[in-house]
């Protein structure tokens, strides 16, 4: 532990301090959006969006290397793919419910397959593990600016449309009958989820996205009595899991993304068993 603290204070380890700041900032978006995802029970939609992101990453790498578009960053490709997927999935879930599972599953698989094919057609070797399983230690100053802007957007829209998002999550049909455009706010919620998913990919990777998006809010639901309390607890838990998992992974020379997920998952299962035992 002392060695880890010394590493944090070392001027040469700026990447480690960036990672800790990133975890704290990202927890705001994770906690808020994760709460909506959990209470709306759309974790499978978030999973489909996260895997579609790989198609955008593969396209960006292809365009950078083969076409010379150096400005087309993989995170830009991931963002475009995530937003497009969110809109498609949202429209499908609203208007084609009888085929919802099939279409969403197809987008899930096609996104991953497209990304792999783009990379197959790109000369050179690419280490994709940071996209699949995350690597918070690769965070740059540009990433911190991105997450700060996302926090402002998510926090601002959540405060501005809190009651509308609340209605969409709990009783969209009733609010639709009262004249609220629930379809618009549902799609807006999915777009915000897609942007948060892109951020999650940088920290825990595509494969582990759903876990960090839902586990903290699931734990928070044990103790929160109101939605805003659940969001606040989720933010604090996200910050705790990311910072503790990061420091553990650094001290033990482990991958940061999986370490964060194992820590949060073990905490959730322990508390779930405890609460079940208390009730019985």
What's a quick, concise take on this entry?
The protein is mostly helical and 280 residues long.
Task: Set down the secondary structure blueprint.
Layout: H1 2-9, H2 14-40, H3 43-67, H4 74-95, H5 100-120, H6 129-133, H7 141-160, H8 162-177, H9 182-203, H10 209-220, H11 227-252, H12 256-279
Helix pairs in contact: 2-7, 2-9, 2-10, 2-11, 3-4, 3-5, 3-9, 3-10, 4-5, 4-9, 8-9, 10-11, 10-12, 11-12
**Helix fraction by DSSP (H/I, runs of at least 4):** over 70%
Radius of gyration: 19 Å
The CATH architecture category equals: Orthogonal Bundle
For the biggest sheet, the summary is: none
Q: What assembly state would you assign to the polypeptide chains in this entry? A: single chain
Helices and strands: which structural class? mainly alpha
* Residue share in β-strands: under 5%
**Number of DSSP strands?**
0
Q: What number of domains?
A: 1
């Amino acid at each position: 532990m002392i060695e880890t603290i010394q590493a944090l204070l070392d001027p040469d380890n700026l990447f480690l301090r960036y990672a800790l700041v990133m975890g704290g900032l990202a927890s705001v978006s994770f906690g808020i959006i994760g709460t909506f995802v959990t209470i709306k029970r759309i974790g499978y939609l978030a999973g489909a969006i996260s895997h579609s992101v790989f198609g955008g990453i593969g396209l960006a790498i292809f365009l950078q290397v083969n076409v010379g578009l150096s400005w087309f960053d993989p995170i830009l490709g991931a963002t475009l793919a995530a937003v497009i997927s969110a809109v498609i999935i949202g429209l499908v879930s609203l208007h084609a419910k009888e085929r919802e599972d099939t279409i969403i599953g197809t987008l899930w698989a096609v996104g991953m397959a497209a990304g792999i094919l783009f990379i197959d057609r790109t000369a050179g070797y690419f280490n994709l593990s940071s996209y699949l399983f995350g690597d918070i230690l690769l965070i740059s100053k540009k990433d911190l600016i991105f997450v700060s802007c996302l926090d402002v957007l998510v926090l601002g829209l959540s405060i501005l449309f809190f009651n509308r998002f609340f209605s969409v999550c709990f009783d969209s049909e009733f609010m639709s009958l009262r004249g609220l455009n629930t379809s618009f706010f549902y799609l807006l919620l999915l777009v915000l989820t897609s942007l948060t998913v892109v951020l999650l990919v940088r920290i825990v990777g595509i494969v582990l996205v759903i876990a960090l998006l839902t586990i903290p809010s699931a734990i928070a639901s044990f103790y929160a009595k109101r939605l805003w309390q659940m969001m606040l607890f989720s933010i604090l838990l996200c910050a705790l899991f990311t910072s503790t998992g990061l420091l553990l992974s650094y001290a033990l020379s482990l991958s940061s993304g999986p370490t964060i997920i194992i820590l949060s998952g073990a905490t959730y299962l322990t508390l779930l068993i405890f609460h079940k035992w208390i009730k019985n």
